[in-house]
Amino acid sequence: MKKKLIIAMVLALAVSAFAFTACKKKKAPRSNPDVSVGENFYPEVIFTIKDMDGNSIDESVFSLHTLTMINFWEPWCGPCVNEMPELEKLYENYKDKGFYIIGVYSSTDMKSEVKDIMKQAHTSYPIATYDSAFDRFQSGSVPTTIFVDEHGWILPIYASSDSEKLYIGARTYEDWAALVDTYYN
Asked: Domain of 21?
């Protein structure tokens, strides 16, 4: 009888330990078992870039915000520059919800033009120089935009499939706000 009781207690302890361990493991949203190892989740976008003030920005920024918009633009692109006040308004209106924007450009020989554009657009979100880690998101057109969640996963916010993650072209504030609202609602 004692032997059966000891076996039952050992089994109960083993099941409890297993259940406790299973409960402790975090699950990433939009579950994808291929991107996690234990409790560590790896973002789809890994990069290190410098903003206009020389500050480093990397993928850890995603964990600080519920939704990050990365807008690839160029200072010579009229629609890109015209869109910046719209993006600034979007940033200002949604940052309290955890929304963040990073503007990324690759024409590094145009740094003074970029500073002038930022000043004219009253841009308060960071503008940074391009990194080759972003190559896979290039559409051949600017502006091109992606959205990333707090785990670093690229989101197809309103797209009909996972392959539709690039948002090509400039949009109005209303268009961007409607898109961002689909994430928060």
From this structure: 2-31
> Which residues make Cβ contacts (< 8 Å) with residue 151, sequence separation at least 6?
28, 29, 41, 43, 62, 63
* pTM of the predicted model as reported, rounded to 2 decimal places: 0.76
16 lies in the same domain as 62: no
Helix axes 111-121, 78-94, angle to 10 degrees: 50
| Same domain? 63 vs 12 | no
The verdict on 7 and 88 lying in the same domain is: no
Q: Which residues pair with 48 in a beta bridge?
A: 58
The predicted-structure confidence for 106-148, as pLDDT tens digits, reads as follows 998 999 999 999 999 999 999 999 999 999 888 889 999 999 9
Pairing verdict, β 40-41 and 36-37: antiparallel
175 in Cβ contact with 181 (< 8 Å): no
CA 51 – CA 79 distance, rounded (Å):
22
Q: Is 96 exposed, middle or buried (0-12, 13-18, 19+ CB in 10 A)?
A: exposed
> Is-contact 142 167, C-beta < 8 A?
no
